[in-house]
Design brief:
Layout: E1 11-18, E2 21-23, E3 31-39, E4 42-45, E5 49-53, E6 57-61, E7 68-71, E8 75-83, E9 94-97, H1 100-112, H2 120-134, E10 142-144, H3 150-161, H4 167-174, H5 178-189, H6 193-210, H7 215-221, H8 227-238, H9 242-247
Antiparallel strand pairs: 1-8, 2-7, 3-6, 3-8, 4-5, 4-7, 5-10, 6-9
Helix pairs in contact: 1-2, 3-4, 3-5, 7-8
Length: 248
């Protein structure tokens, strides 16, 4: 990182705890964001789709991307803003697993921001943090938005509001047949309605699980008939059972 003197700090921090509901993060032109869930789970939506961010994960949002946060339960958000000219991370939105070292670096940077990159300690901190972020694996926590189809978009919003809602009910509310709804979803997202809905339900479960809801209660809340069926689906989607996934 360059140590050239700057009139304005190039790294800023922002910490806030959101109650259940919806919110928008402060956005400023020329600033990329790294949004971390210190506790709780949030879903961050853009025009292209939505990313679900549970504890120990962070979302990189390039400058200019308008986002909306929705959380079913309380969520503690810790955000670092990077001046875009730093080119700190890739130019596309992505979500990563935050390891122990990166978590401590990130939380320290938020607490001690704004960082002065002319100060050796701050410059070293940022260099190490960015280097570690580049090495983190992506997480499969994204859903495409069916924004190109009013029918599919309506159904998607219904699924997000009530993951347990049957497909037949979605079609009735949208005023179309189930087959028409399925065709619209495939055309708008490249995914079948069943696959999209299954992934949406698993992502919704992260809100409940991070809030301390039991596996049994979570399974019921998102529409699974038994806890074992939910755990099997969860493992299939995210690679590990709910208990170990959130403990990572």
């Amino acid at each position: 990182m360059s140590k050239t003197r700057h009139d304005e700090p190039l790294v800023r921090g922002y910490a806030v705890t959101h109650p259940p509901g919806a919110a928008r993060l402060p956005v400023a032109a020329g600033w990329d964001q790294l949004v971390y869930a210190a506790s709780g789970t949030m879903t961050v939506s853009t025009a292209a789709g939505s990313w679900t961010v549970p504890p120990a994960r962070a979302l990189w949002i390039p400058a200019g991307e308008q986002v909306r946060i929705v959380n079913r339960f309380r969520v503690a958000v810790r955000t670092l803003y990077f001046a875009s000219r730093l080119n700190a991370l890739p130019s596309e939105t992505r979500i990563v697993t935050v390891t122990g070292l990166v978590r401590e670096l990130l939380l320290h940077a938020v607490t001690h921001s704004p960082l002065d990159l002319d100060a050796p300690v701050d410059s070293a901190l940022l260099t190490l943090l960015v280097d570690q972020l580049h090495q983190l694996p992506d997480e499969p926590l994204w859903l495409p938005s069916p924004a190109g189809s009013a029918i599919a978009f309506t159904a998607a919003e219904l699924i997000r509001d009530d993951p347990a809602r049957p497909i037949s009910s979605l079609a009735r509310t949208a005023g179309v047949s189930q087959r028409t709804l399925e065709r619209a979803f495939l055309a708008a997202t490249g995914m079948t309605l069943g696959v999209w809905r299954r992934h949406a339900r698993i992502l919704a479960s992260l809100h409940y699980l991070a809030a301390g809801t039991s596996v049994t209660e979570t399974a019921s809340a998102i529409g699974y008939s038994t806890p074992s069926a939910f755990v099997t689906a969860f493992r299939s989607q995210l690679g590990s059972p709910p208990s170990s996934y959130l403990r990572h």
